[in-house]
Amino acid sequence: MQGFRERRVVHSAGKRAICVNGVVSVPATATNEILDLSPPEDQFNATEIIQELFQAGSTIQKRAMIGTRTVQGTYGIGGTLCLPADPAKAEAAKTVEILTHGVGLEKSYWDIAPGYSYADAAAVAGYATFAYDRLGVGQSDHPDPIQEVQASLEVEILHNLAQLFRTGKVGDRSFSNIIGVGHSFGSILQVGTDSKYPKDFDGVVLTAFTNTLTNLPYTVLANNPSIAALNQPSRFSKLTNGYLVHNDAIAIQEVFFRYPYFDPAIFQNQVDRKDTYTIGEEFTIGAVLTPATAYTGPLDVVAGVYDYPFCLGNCSYPDNQLARVKSSLYPAADNAKSDIFLVPENGHYINAHRTAGQAFDHINTFLGRNGF
Predict the structure, then answer these.
(1) pLDDT by residue (tens digit) across 254-309?
(2) Rounded to whole angstroms, how far apart are CA atoms 63 and 65?
(3) Among 78, 186, 209, 335, which is most buried by a count of CB atoms within 10 Å?
(4) b/e string for 159-182 if b means 16 or more Cβ within 10 A?
(5) Which pTM value belongs to this model?
């Protein structure tokens, strides 16, 4: 398997896929914001920054953004490429799904446990998957969390990952079809990539997402962002104070899970695996959410009916909020080939609820119906 360093062979949670885990070198150049901010001195300072960012009439974002600069580098991106364990399906696989996780998660969100593994479900359907840790998360590099780890750079990394797979520079083949699958902030990055590079992906699946960030302040404040090095020093003591994590289990359940529709053991798995995000991301998250007017492929939008970050806990009120995504963000997407799905008895962490399999089946049916 070319393109990986520190590689090792692993199986997906349900052993339906054989995977290579390692680090991929991804070149990227982006125009980032120069933020007139220093890493918070302590948790009091970190909390005040978040409070001020979301207060009524806040001007901190405007005051902090004092210019732009070009950020360029080759970044180590931790990832896991999975192919079907069935040799015939592995040989025939011509489609790879690039999976981008949300804030506070890492790549294992796509392969939590048997029955909760999108990597397994995709492999059974005959697809390859590449789940990766976003910049500043997990196995990936952790550069400056304020000036470097921003949404614009993450868009460029996703764009270049698509090119690496398209040209066969990662893995054992050139994939004919590249599908972008995002979750939450990962869906925002997917929209940003499709807006800037509409030919990168042959199909797009946005999960745990609608077309508005109106509810973002409620979500972030409920998460009680904590300095990672102070919250979990055993894991994050080497990181500067611009790296944050969700505070505790209650902060995670509050907006990401809907009781009683999850297994407490799976919930605890996600609490234990919580990972980092950055102040730079918090200040730039909305900048890349611009309509992908030139993307013409199929679009699928999937969300738990009780998603809180994007629907305030009810994606059916006052109507199906997923129906607004295509017209507002993907007006040229192929209408006949596009779809939406509200996952019953499910919240924001779709893959960690008992009805995750319904979402997996819907997505893979959508892909198969469109010839992938």
Answers:
(1) 999 999 999 999 999 999 999 999 999 999 999 999 999 999 999 999 999 999 99
(2) 6
(3) 209
(4) bbbbebbbeeebbeeebebbbbbb
(5) 0.98
